[in-house]
Amino acid sequence: MKLTTHPVLDAAIIALLFLALVELPTEATVNGHDSGSQAAYEYWTLHGFAYGIDIFQNVGPLGFLSYPKIYTGFLSGTKLLLHVLLMCSLIVLLLRHAEGMVRWRRLVLLVAAGSCAVGSTSLYLLLLLASRQLMAAERRRVVLPAAVLLALLALAHGTYLFIALVSVAAALACQLLSRRPRLAATTAVGFLVSLMAIWAAAGQSWVNLPAYFYGMISFTNGYNDAMALYLSYRIDAAGFLALLVCAGLIVRRVWSSVLSDRVDIAQSARQALWSGTELLILLIVWKHGIVRDDNHHLAIYFQYLVVGFAGALFARPLPVDSVSCAETLARGRESVLGRSAKTAAGILAALLLIATLPKIERTLAGIVDLPGYFAGLNAELHRNAATMQSPAARALIGRDAVGYFGNFPAPMLYSGLNYVSMPSTVSFASWNDRIVKADAEFIRDDRRAPPYLFFALDSADGRLVAQDSALAQLEILHRYDVVRFQSDILRGDYSPHRGKLLLRRAGKKNPLLKVPIAARDIRVGEWVDVPYDSSNPLWVRVEVGRGLLAHLVTLAYKPPQYRLELAFKNGMIRTYKFVPQTAATGFLMNPLILENGDALAVRFRQEYQRYMADAHPALSKVVRFRIACDRLVALCEPAAQVAFEDVRGLALGSDNDQEQFYRFKAGQFDFDAEVEAMDVASPVMSATAFGKAFFQFTAPSRIQLHKPKGARRLTAFYGMYPKTYEKEPPPFYSQIYQLKVGFDWLRGVVDDPIGGRSAEAVTGVAVSVSARERGSQDVKSEVGTLKVELDWVRKKSAMKLYAGTLSGAGADGVELAVRLETKEGGTKRLYVRDVNPIETPGDRGEQRLDLELPVEEGTVWIDVNAKSNPVYDQFLLRSLRLERSGVPAPSS
Length: 892
Fold this sequence. Notes:
Strand order of the largest sheet: 4-3-5-7-6
Number of helices: 25
Oligomer: single chain
Radius of gyration: 31 Å
Helix content: 25-40%
């Protein structure tokens, strides 16, 4: 097809389009949720996991096709080859789609496609054009490639599977209406044979194909409740307006076709079937973008609009032989707004082309030196994988199978472990009853469950972690023992709790029994007293219905959003996003396990007794709770049903080795000591300084170590974070804090979810502001006057706090103190030092602590105290060891 009057220019345009559409991998897998999950798609296919049986996800064995930018080292060659094949197919379909268009509009369409058809957008566009090809085709040689493309995409993603099935069904109806039964047979057989052949080539059994279909259907149930976000009503409204406009144009086009005297009923039916398919894809892409409501997902929707529906405002009803809304871009009337449209479209195309040029340049550079390009990615992957290694755990596990409960699976893929996945694959993806029960059955089954399991509690979007695969959590507590608490802070783990428990399967256990205690109907928004308090754990189920109107709104938009407020016996109130689907199955309320340290503590007798006596520093009983509505309040149900159950057979507090508990706690921080507790001003982070990896504490912080009677020496390396003293800090210290009002982003940040907010910032500066006021406020604090800028980012949901000192800026150091509290009750101060690197050059760089300890048994306290200005007090610590006499201390 001629794009211009010059063949050389045509070839150049097609080459540029290829470079714009093809996406070479740009980053190697890191230990983040998205990156690790995308790598896992290739790992599961490579190692023969059965989709629909072993794996319940929204992807199939070709799920990696949606993520061409990530380099995993598993199926990278296959992924690149299939991606290039798909993009070449997209170019061919775009060129066929543009036949007969006015040249300038044809070029605008191609530029829009090259600029916006990236990632999932390109695959949605490919589905659209392949469906059009299948419905409009009159020859078998045209039908078969389209059927193969749809079959290929159907095994990449559950959404693509649904679109492909609908498209094939619509194409069959079109062909039968046109009295072409052989073409219909070719379409049906070609799609099914291609689907089964690709399924088998991906290492899957044909017997499991129905399970894959059923698994995809069941996976979508509950996704909206669990994953919906409300970030910007304005953007939602703009997207919905665009949806209505495009849908209206499609409906207008098919209506004009039906009223035309030149077409018969069969032709009008074909046009209606195609338009219905177009509307379906549009609605699906809208839902894909709007449910999560973040930049990544919204970009997919708006990019699809630009490519598929640009110029539709200038469209006239399509002729019968034209079946694409995007083709209206080329056939609009020149007489009505024609010149203005041409000018505006030309400017848009020029801007899109300019924006795309850097990507074209990068792709061209990668293709020119493809071996070198992939060698660089491979080196980057090896560096990233080095941060994920667990040599001690690997030595313990050997070649035994190991499972994973958590949301960061990358270390399981790159640590040389015999990894087997739970059906939910990541713990927060268990958002309906079927997945929750499948996870629990997997853990319960002695033949399928792995001998070892990494356990890392972490949820998403402010959800209560106890709701995530709650039945599996209960079975894990019942059937596994702790053998190690592994730190991941220094290994690139992005989990907020920075570590995971390594568990080993215990001997055969009897099934757990849940005994009903009480049940009642409640009003949404009503506080409910927790009726039971004994040594047995408490399970709660909450059922919240959904009316017909709420179902319809959820189908087109998002569901009403609820929150769960929990009041504890220690007086604290915490708020979480509430997921009705999983709450109906239930979750463990008392003891409420919120992080890995809690899961460790409930296993040890002394810690569990402290919890039962309401004297534990971290664990506290839930005494009442309520379900309230946060979003789309008018659609929320006014009533719910609550049931409490007593869990029998779960032996908590059964381990009497308290020193082992201390050693496990120390393992979370790579300390060779026995950590009793840690009181820190903000979450402990990783930091690199002086060429070494440190734990970063913010003053004031306190570490409590158990000192056995034979321990006689305390050693460590410490220092102040270099950036606090390498240059004079500016007089106005600026920091952005995301404070979740209602959802527990930072534990302990929100004290009162109704009135004013009291927040302890990550610098350790306590401030109190009125959350009902916007704009600038001057607040007095212990470091002088703070300037606070308060801005809501979501109504009654979150706020941004900009705080900075107007006076007294600068790091004045910390006081490091070590003291011993003996078992008999005495206190001995062993060490004290002011560390002030600005005024004392000798305090800069890495420092060494080496103390001889008294013989008595007791508790060693390491205090990092703030001085007059705590804003820059970032203290570094590594290699903390508590040794017996005669053990040599480390020299570096």
